[in-house]
Structures are given as C-alpha cells and as structure tokens.
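Journal club side-thread
Mid-discussion, someone asked how the predicted structure for our own chain would compare to the paper's figures. Pasting it here so we can look after the session.
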Amino acid sequence: MKKKIVLAYSGGLDTTVIIPWLKENYDCDVAAVCVDVGQEADWKSIKQRALDTGASSCVVADVKREYVENYVWPALKANALYEDKYLLGTSTARPLIAKVLVDAAKKEKARAIAHGATGKGNDQVRFDMGIMALAPDLEIIAPWRIWDIKSREEEIAYLEKRRIPVPMKKSDSYSRDDNLWHISHEGLELEDPVNEPSLGRMLKMTTPPEKAPNKSEYVEVDFEAGIPVAVNGKKMDPVALVKTLNKIGGAHGVGLCDLVENRVVGMKSRGVYETPGGSILYYAHQELEHLCLDRQTYAFKQQIGLKMAEVIYGGLWFTPLREALEAFVDSTQKTVSGKVRLKLYKGSISSAGAESPYSLYNASIASFTTGELYNHADAKGFIRLYGLPVLVRALMEKDRKNAAKSPVKRKKP
C-alpha cells in the first residue's frame, strides 16, 4: 500500500501542478483537501479537477463560520492592522487551513502534508508553523522550495506537456487568494511599484471608486461585546453578516488597499487587497471603542493591536503570546456594545453617529454649557500640577542662562 500525502488543494495553478509532481517524485497517493473559508469557488468542479489530475480522493471542509468566529473576530476586536493598511485576510485564514490539514492527515494516516506556498512568501511560514504546532511529527512538503520549476509560465508548460488542462488564462495570471474576508492580487503590473493597478480588469468584489454610485449610502452595524451581530437592524449569523457588508461596501468601492509590505522572509512585496465588508467593520468597531473605552485602556490597546497584527501576519497563531493578547483584548470588549452608523461614498467611509449603553460621553461635562460635574476653575490647579515638569525645567533653564550672563569675579593673587 502506497504512503499517503495530504495536499492543501485550491484548484489553482500551483496545487494543480503539485498533484502530478508529488506522484512522480514520491510514488504516493495524494489526498486533496479543499478548505472552504468563503472562496467564490465551484467546489464540484474543483473536486473533479483534483481527481482528474491524479488525486486519489478529494474532500471539501466547510469552515466558513469557524473562520469568522474564531479567527476574523479576534483580529477585528484587536483592531489588528498590519503596516497601517492590511486587514490580514490571508493571514487569518492560514492557521485554520493548517488545522484542517492536520485533522485530515491524522484521519488519513498520512506521512506528510504538502502545500503550494512559494519559498518567497509568507504563507509557507504560516502553514509550516501551524502544522509544527499541531502535529510536530508530520513531514511538511513544500514543492516550491525544492522543485526545478521557476515561474508560473513554467508551471503552465508543465501541465501542457502532460496534457492536463490549465486552470487559468495566461492573460489573467494574477496570483490571487480569496476568502470570505478579502481578495488579494499579486503579480503582472503590480510587480513594479511605479505602475498604477489595473483595477478594471483586476477587481472581483469591489467597484472601482470612480465608477461607484453618485449617491451615498448609510449602513448601521450593531455590536455586542466587540462582535458585530446585525446590519441595518437585522440580526445575522457571522457568515451572512460579512457577505452582506461585502456586497454593500463593494458596490461603493470601499476597502481597497494597494500596499508595498514587508514580508516575514525579509523582502518587500506589493499587493492589492479588496476588503469591503472588513473595512466597514473595522471602521465601525473603532468608532464604538472611541465612545466606550477610557483613554488609558484605548491607548494601551492600540499597542496590543499592533502586536496582534505582527503575530498573526507572522504565522504565530498557535502560540501562548497570541492567546495572551487575545485574552487582554477580550477583557476590553465587555463594554464595546452599541450601534454605529456609517456613510459610504465612492471609496470613502465616514462616521454618521454612534450610540452605546456603555458610552463614556457625558454631555453635562463635555458641553460648552457648564454642568454640575465640571467647574472651570478646577482646570487651573490641574494644569499647574500637570505642567509641573515643564515649569521646573523652564525655571532651571532661566537660572542657567542668568548664571552664564553674570561676570566671573577673579580671585585676588
């Protein structure tokens, strides 16, 4: 009986090439595993493609809800944003995919797990780290790190030589990753940062902003303990909620990100990301936190959000650090409940009001009209103490300058 290798199969070019390559180089059976995290995919056709290409079996694991609840929501609650722009669409999905692959490998009694991540990318780190954390005894095979193929053009030639249908058009060979949260695009004109993205032919989920409607649209999002639960007053499950906001946001061209980022492996790369629903949720969540969190908690949470983004981006999901960061974030979200109203218009998002039963905004204090809780005269003493270090330094500088101006008296011989 041949040994079995579990392959993370997407139906794309890389993993379609990997099936025959594994069979030719390892003399093994390939068990293809498709992980459904919300891709717009024809899973029936993809399963058949895997079998036609030489896989001994192919299964599809639908983990969309688990993805949103256990991986996307923690990033959202932390306001985790990588390098000021990236909403971690690919980064949040990879640890879950690794978990599904490990479960499949254990069920199949496989000797190894294979994936199609390149030797230059971040995903090899995320997959390997997840597999190492959950199944340290399993072998990891990453063909891009060991085979002789050097380009997507060579991959296409590899399939054509074996008369295997190429699952893409040569003229549209962007490297894409999509899931419920986002779509990423790399390659072609994006490989030169001087080029403007060809949004018209590239975008899949989002209308180019200049082609978005000339009329704005308002959208309301309800949160409970930092988690979005309703859109425009309608309660929804997590998957339906994200899909709804993707449709609304995509129509108005919001959530586009063109980023030259620092990869984990040390190089810079450029990608264009579509995250319409996610951008709405991040904006709304942050607006609610401005209303519900005190200054010190909000300021420290900003630091935690930066670290959380770094940890998720770097493939460190299954670590004590990520668990500890998430525990802190969850403790801050107990009062982040309420409703946020946003205005969408030609690629922009702006606030149109927020309310919460835990709001720390007090009109009697904040209003220009003096209320009982605030006495203007109290400010003088506060500023005197708050500015005491500034005052002391200024006095010191004044004394030093005066001493420098005074003539130095010579001692008599």
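Post-session note: The chain has three domains: 4-75+89-174, 183-293+336-361, 365-400.
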